[in-house]
Sequence to fold (382 residues):
Amino acid sequence: MKIAILKEEKNEYRVSLVPTDVKTLIAAKHEIVITKGAGDNAGFTDHEYLEVGAKVLNNNKETIGNSNLILKLSKPTNAEIKCISPNQILVSIFNLANNPKVLFKLMKTKITTLGIEAIQDDGVFSLIIPNEQIKGRFGVLLGAYNLSKMVKDGLGKTFASLTHNKDKAQFTILNASYAGLEAAKTVLGLGANLTVLENDDHLVKQIKDDTHLHTLAKLNSCKFEVKKADFTDLSNIVINTDVLINTNSVPGSLTAKRITQKMVSTMKHGSVIVDLAIDQGVTADTETKPSTFKKPYYIVEGVKHFAIENIPSLFANSISVAISTILTEKFLKHLKGENALMTIKDNKILLNAIITYNGELTNKIVADALHIQNKNISSLIK
Fold:
């Protein structure tokens, strides 16, 4: 199999495969081509890839032209789409429910795509867990830091109780997702009070039964509650919330819009909203646009809104190693010959992660989010 590693665009610092996993794949008789400088931002040099047997090519167009399977971690650019033929497979994190224009281009060009965010085994989306873990942890730290007077308009409120002052920050997490669970651990580890809102019975039970969370709450004297909610009571909760963190329970789906302008107007000036699901769409009426690494927040109704796209990329080295390891173990090392589609056909987990094939949308989560029809991939591949 000829596997390509593309160089990512700006604000994407990760790389899809690291040299140690490239070495494993080459030992398994695969050929690896990588675009010059693709690993630089994640801390992996061209020399390291050359040392393990990869070929370093000058640009993405050349790399795509020398491959059967194409790997990248951000949605494809127009230039890349033009270079990819229908007999190749593009593997990426697409979030196409929030990028319908890209979806329709992929369908029009009949490109076969496999979504990293769509690979699941017994309901576990293993390939995106590292991304969600770092989002959850970093989101809490971001919120806690912005309560201090180190930043403009901070409330000057601590996240943990002090001697002679038991008052501390109140965090609220919407959705008990992978990121939500990590955020909950971090909040309780810091010592803040926490309310988790979730409308899925299974996830509510999972959080309620998590002994680790309850142990952290007890050790740090935190008020900790998990509510089965349809979010109609969110208006009453946000009034007393210092940091509101939103996540998304279903990878690849469109973010549910839960927060209204009226709700935000009732929050304290200097409080913080951290939207960790922004890659899949906005959660608040007051979110006018995604924020950036250089300008990470904007203020609406006196409330700081952090809606930073692609937070995991800020930790490119660590995340690249994690994704590369899982991608190699779960997918790439099982490939045989030069026809990746035939390998995928015999692997139900991978087959169900196909998003587009021969001009058709095959992913139900994306189809439901955009209210369009999808076709069953098994009926399309012969």
